[in-house]
Amino acid sequence: MSFDRSIKIAPSILSADFANFGLECEAIEAEGADWVHVDVMDGHFVPNITFGPSTCKAIRPHVKGVMDVHLMIAPVDPYIEAFAEAGADVISAHIEAGPHIHRTVQAIRAAGAKAGVALNPGTPAESVEYLLDMVDLICVMTVNPGFGGQKFIHSQVEKVRKLRAMIGDRPIHIEIDGGVTPETAPLVVKAGADVLVAGSAVFKGGSVQNPAPYGENIRAIRAAVS
Ligand code: DX5
Ligand code: ZN
């Protein structure tokens, strides 16, 4: 996985048909997705439950590109190895999920994955200051994590701008997660983001039987930021 700052659209399979994950991943990639974003929720750190490493492993053969795993779980450390073995290219952990994010980031890299750190809307940009030389991605949550289809929180655009300045020349992606649409995407791209997670805005109107809307939705976001 090489580093570049071009805009990447990462559909979240939280909005896919859960009975058809493999085909859904193939459909979004065929329709122009750059990364596949996988939302893991534990019903404890966030008020919703999705799936774990075995589902990631089952999905892996159906994803040609980057499998981007967003862990909304606490604790995180006991599960890192399992997600890396399941084939995650990027593993992001929440800074709020425990007292030892520095150790968690080390463990993610030691397991062979790129390390991401995710920030809830109430968590300041400065909280990652001492992690900048060891992370590959910072995920800025633009909704409170747990559910798809929520409204974009505009105050986070300023946080993206701050993070972009803090990152400087370091090879760190800024990922935006939550409420990304053709209307909100330009705000965060202008502020410095390069990975756009989008669940409902990509999957709306389509299905594995009728995947063309996925392509139209992805192109609409891409067009809005180019
Ligand atoms: C929220 C998840 C997101 C979510 C985004 O907790 O981390 O990835 O699926 O969904 P939309 O794009 O519908 O806001
Ligand atoms: Zn996510």
UniProtKB/TrEMBL annotation:
Cofactor detail note: Binds 1 divalent metal cation per subunit.
EC main group: isomerase
Pathway membership, UniProt: Carbohydrate degradation
One annotated GO molecular function: D-ribulose-phosphate 3-epimerase activity
Cofactor: Mn(2+); Zn(2+); a divalent metal cation; Fe(2+)
Keyword Plastid: no
Keywords: Carbohydrate metabolism, Isomerase, Metal-binding
SUPFAM superfamilies assigned to the protein according to its UniProt record, in alphabetical order: Ribulose-phoshate binding barrel
CDD domains listed in its UniProt record: RPE
PROSITE patterns membership: RIBUL_P_3_EPIMER_1 (PS01085), RIBUL_P_3_EPIMER_2 (PS01086)
Function as written in the Swiss-Prot or TrEMBL entry: Catalyzes the reversible epimerization of D-ribulose 5-phosphate to D-xylulose 5-phosphate.
Family: Belongs to the ribulose-phosphate 3-epimerase family.
Protein name: Ribulose-phosphate 3-epimerase
Organism of origin: Pseudohalocynthiibacter aestuariivivens
Gene, per the UniProt record: rpe
